[in-house]
Design a protein that fits this description.
single chain; 908 residues; alpha+beta
Length: 908
């Protein structure tokens, strides 16, 4: 070979060796960021998720149980199945910065693409020919890439993986992995740096990356937002690309991830909040304990905020809201609208409340106004101007006024689409806040919560948590997942959890999720906190029953045990009535035990409310002969208000508390034994007879309040199959009655639907026909439920506090619990005939259970049929149960063996 040929050959060898070396170098130097699919909208990166004991601090949250992190942990744990030698898998996973990219399958399920980095030039032959007795591994080629398919011994798929460059790439969906291989091997694949690489933090033990533009698009395509649009608006408060990294300083208090500040697009709410001085959240006094989701906008320059917000309202609202805004502006002069915005001051807050029996979605908006300003004349004028019904749209309440404004989505018209979900608007004023609610009862209940300090600031548990968590911010988002589960019946959060197959009531290791962000010079500085209100219970006390207190009493109480709230410390105390008709506090010292002398046995319950409006609680109750109020002062001295009797010597059958009314904070409904109804508004005035012309015989209790034709009515059910309405003035609207022409064992209940501003009746006949009707008598659903035997009967049954209800199928020795659509939840058999009683307890959307008394023992069950507590409670009467809020603890009161006993049970 001549010299030229040798030179050419040597040059070719060098070029080929260089090319081979470049390829090998590129293979082992390629970062994960160049491999991420272009549609990646959520990325996790951590060296610790594969650690089965990953906690941020001692006693802290188990991070592997946090949603999305849990899914990642489960998928990376699959590698432990590939070898019977556990050290191989541990060595493979230990201290590696693994990247997880959330993807969606064709069936709508969310899975992760997992990128596991490998050490350069190390042998991993055992991954190519794994030997394991736990799984079977086969392989196939796709686009020239070898894919390993891992299945169970019976060929059920588990996951698939492939080796690509210096990574093992895996996924539980073979289709998703194959899609990625087509992308990764495509010559058109981009080689530019990933959009996430510029905001990484290699020192962080855990990082979360979000492409909020892509995430918003995915969610908008997949789910109808309806009135849950606020959760999608949450994404608009984030930069288009965001990264949050585990912060060791903040996490010493509560597990917190923070961002380093990312450029934002200054539009919408962000335009109004940008460069506003961030402020700490100080008004937790106004946030009720039943808040499921809260949004807060904080600003220092109110004039600048409102001016910029008004310029963005068109882009922040749907077409229908923009049309409603234009119509309102044509009715009201521009100067009056200008004056409305000038009153704003510092904060705008939206609270979405946990649901109860009355509402599917209760919402309250708090608009802080200048202390020296008054918006009340404007609101009054608006209520009168927009009144579409007869009568003045103003109702006295608690010394103030409640204004009804008949204008669809008024808060969204004024403040943008985040504040949607108000088909009607009810407005009140409290200190320097304007309070807007989407239902009059929601507003009144909220004002009562403030009066009795059932708010975050007055709860030791809430206050301690938020005091450590809240920092200066312009935007705050707080969500209690358990309280918001039923609230999110539609919307993307419910969709997301269903796609991830999570039961958020049981698996979440945190109680509150808190997002905060401050906006300065068009950059967002954000944090995300996973927090527990109290420490997780140890195995020694979780779900264990403990005797807290017992007191021997000489005679059995008449009618069982009553519990009343002891204001202002909020603790419950026990009251009993004796066979000799004395009302006693048995746990007090001897000289302070006697409360009052009764004229007959007590009917119904004893209510602890400020009926006298003197700033402390009284005990309100009824005997068969009279209505009674007992006042207790701070020195535990009792004063009995003169009792009130019904006319004509009628006997009282029941007393039912109604938590709001025309004359004040509280009122009561009295039912006599004939079927006459009375409204009791004042402790010094006799009750007002409602049905003056005829009694409502054979009433099934309780009676419920519903809204019909824009007025509050009482819904009553008669066992002969009739359902009727009567309003507070004794007027019976048309139709007078709906007659189902069949026997009933339990009352019907009304469920108000704010989305279509209507109330539906739901109930079941004695022999199991499920009925859903409108208040006007139109049938929505009517079908026969399954009967297990000829002796069983059906009824709806309310919780003792009348805040929720369920359907039951019962017989002498068994029962079944059904949901509000008639679907069976669970059943129980083997009860003692004629000696059993089942109660449904609703203590909040996250605390719902049954107490089943069989003989002289009571057992608690959740609504899936699992026993709560490790043993039953001895009690000759149905037990009383109280939730110690924040501490996840139940107190159970019973009477057995001539002793009053108080038991405790830790739920979480």
């Amino acid at each position: 070979m001549n010299r030229r040929g040798i030179i050419v050959a040597i040059s070719l060898v060098i070029l080929l060796a260089g090319w081979w070396g470049f390829q090998r170098w590129q293979m082992y130097s390629a970062t994960v960021w160049k491999l991420l699919p272009e549609n990646a909208f959520l990325v996790l990166q951590s060296q610790r998720i594969q650690d089965t004991t990953f906690k941020v601090q001692k006693g802290g949250i188990e991070m592997r149980e946090v949603p999305l992190l849990n899914l990642a942990a489960n998928q990376i744990d699959h590698f432990r199945l590939l070898s019977d030698d556990s050290t191989k898998a541990d060595k493979l996973l230990k201290n590696r910065g693994i990247t997880y990219v959330l993807q969606k399958t064709s069936s709508g399920r969310f899975v992760y693409l997992v990128f596991l980095p490998l050490d350069a030039f190390q042998s991993y032959n055992w991954l190519e020919t794994p030997t394991s007795s736990k799984v079977r591994v086969t392989s196939h080629l796709h686009s020239g890439q070898k894919i390993y398919d891992v299945t169970t011994p019976t060929s059920d798929p588990i996951f698939a993986y492939t080796r690509f460059n210096n990574f093992i790439v895996s996924c539980i969906s073979g289709d998703v992995l194959e899609d990625w291989i087509r992308y990764a091997t495509s010559p058109l694949r981009t080689t530019r740096p990933s959009r996430f690489e510029t905001i990484k933090d290699d020192a962080s033990e855990l990082s979360i990356f979000l492409d909020n533009t892509l995430l918003s698009d995915v969610l908008r395509r997949d789910v109808s937002t309806k009135s849950d649009a606020g959760l999608l608006y949450f994404l608009s408060f984030l930069p288009s690309i965001e990264s949050l990294h585990l912060d060791p300083i903040f996490s010493s208090k509560n597990t917190t991830l923070t961002s380093k500040g990312k450029k934002i697009k200054v539009e919408g709410y962000l335009d109004a909040l940008n460069d506003q001085k961030a402020s700490p959240f100080k008004n937790t006094f106004f946030i009720p304990n039943n808040t499921a989701i809260m949004y807060r906008l904080g600003f220092d320059d109110a004039g600048l905020f409102t001016r910029k917000l008004r310029g963005q309202l068109q882009s922040l609202s749907a077409d229908s809201i923009n049309q409603s805004r234009s119509a309102l502006q044509s009715l009201i002069s521009a100067s009056r609208i200008d004056s409305f915005y000038r009153f704003s001051h510092k904060e705008l807050i939206l609270c979405q409340l946990e649901p109860n029996n009355v509402l599917t979605k209760g919402q309250v908006i708090l608009q802080q106004i200048s202390p020296s300003a008054s918006l009340e004349p404007f609101i009054r004028r608006l209520a009168i101007l927009l009144n579409k019904n007869k009568g003045l749209p103003i109702e006295p309440f608690q010394g103030g006024k409640v204004y009804r404004i008949d204008w669809n989505e008024l808060p969204a018209v004024l403040f943008g689409g985040l504040f949607k979900g108000f088909p009607k608007c009810y407005v009140a004023f409290h200190k320097n806040f304007v309070v807007y609610a989407n239902d009059s009862q929601v507003l009144k209940d909220y004002l009562i919560d403030l009066e009795y300090q059932r708010t975050w600031a007055n709860s030791a548990v809430y206050n301690a948590f938020f005091d450590k968590t809240f920092r200066a911010s312009n935007f705050t988002f707080v969500i209690n997942p358990r309280k918001s589960k039923e609230y999110m019946g539609s919307g993307f959060m419910n969709y997301l959890f269903k796609a991830l197959n999570y039961d958020i009531t049981e698996q979440l290791p945190f109680d509150q999720l808190v997002f905060q962000s401050a906006y300065k010079k068009s950059r967002a500085y954000s944090s995300l906190t996973f927090g527990r209100l109290s420490k997780a219970s140890s195995a020694k006390i979780l779900n264990k029953v403990f005797l807290q207190q017992e007191l021997e009493i000489p005679e059995a109480p008449s009618g069982g045990i009553f519990t009343v709230r002891n204001y202002p410390n909020g603790m419950e105390k026990v009251i009993i009535a004796t066979a000799s008709n004395e009302l006693l506090n048995p746990l007090a010292e001897e000289k302070k035990r006697k409360i009052a002398k009764l004229d007959a046995p007590i009917v119904s319950d004893i209510y602890s409310v400020d009926f006298l409006s003197v700033g402390r609680l009284q005990y309100v109750f009824a005997t068969e002969k009279s209505l009674n109020v007992v006042d207790e002062d701070d020195q535990q001295r009792y004063m009995t208000i003169p009792s009130i009797r019904l006319p004509l010597g009628r006997k009282i059958r029941s007393l039912q508390q109604l938590e709001s009314g025309i004359e004040g904070s509280f009122r009561f409904l009295v039912i006599d034994t004939y079927g006459f109804l009375y409204l009791w508004n004042s402790p010094t005035q006799p009750p007002i007879l409602l049905n003056t012309s005829r009694p409502f015989a054979d009433l099934l209790l309780p009676i419920q309040e519903v809204e019909y034709q824009s007025k509050r009515h009482f819904l009553f059910t008669q066992s002969t199959g009739q359902i009727g309405l009567i309003n507070e003035s004794g007027v019976i609207p048309e139709p007078y009655k709906i007659d189902f022409k069949t026997n009933l064992s339990g009352p019907f209940f009304g469920v108000f639907l704010p989305e279509n501003n209507s109330t539906q009746l739901i109930g079941v006949t004695k022999y199991g026909e499920f009925i859903e009707n409108t208040l006007t008598g139109k049938t929505i659903d009517r079908r026969q439920l399954f009967r297990t035997d000829p002796t069983s009967f059906f009824r709806a049954k309310a919780a003792p506090n009348n805040r929720d209800w369920l359907l039951f199928r019962e017989s002498e020795t068994q029962f079944a619990v059904l949901d509000k659509k008639g679907n069976e939840l669970f059943s129980a058999k083997g009860l003692i005939a004629a000696k059993n009683q089942v109660q449904y307890h609703y203590l909040g959307s996250e605390v719902k259970f049954l107490s089943v008394k069989s003989g002289n023992y009571t057992t608690l069950y959740d609504l899936k049929g699992y026993q709560i507590g490790d043993k039953p409670f001895p009690s000759e009467y149905p037990v009383r149960i109280n939730l110690v809020e924040g501490y996840n603890k139940l107190l159970i009161y019973g009477f057995a063996n001539k002793k009053i006993q108080v038991w405790s049970l830790k739920l979480r």
